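Hey,
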Amino acid sequence: LNQSFKVTAPNQVWLSDSTELTYGVNGEHKVRLSGVLDLYGRKLLAYNLSLTETSAAEIQVFQRAFNQFSNAHPLIHTDRGSAYTSGAFNNYLARYNVTRSMSRPGTPYDNAPMERWWNEFKLRWMARHPLAKTYEELVKLVEDGIYYFNHHNRSAIRNGLTPDEYWNEAI
C-alpha cells in the first residue's frame, strides 16, 4: 500500500486491524474488536468481537466481509501481527485472489486510516457512553457505534456525505 491512501472506488483496498475494548463494572473484562475497513469512504464492512486476536478471529471478520462482497478482490492491508502472518489466515485469503500488503515493522502510519478509525470510534463513541457492564451491553454499544459511523458520520473528506452515502454514490 505504501501509504497510498487514495482510491477511486469501493472494494479496491481493505484495511484490517483490531483494538482492545473493556467492559464490566470496573472495566475488568477485555475483548478484541477486529474490523475490515474499506479505504473508499472509510466504511467499516465487517467486525468481530473475540477474547484474543487470533487468526481464527481475523478469518471470521474477513468471512463476514466476503459474504457481503463475494466478487471483491481488494488489496488487503494489515499490520504484521501474528494473526495476520499466520498460514491459516493467508491460506484463507488466497481463496479470494487478493493482493496482500503489510505495514513495515514499527510503522503504524502504514495503516493510518484504520488506526484513525479506531481512535475516532473509541474517543467519539465509546468514551461518550457509559461503560458497558455486560458483554451483551458491549455488543449493543459496538453495533450502535458502527451503525453511527457508517450511516450518520458526515465528513468534508467525503463531500459532506456519510460513508454509506459515499459508497452508494459510487456504485
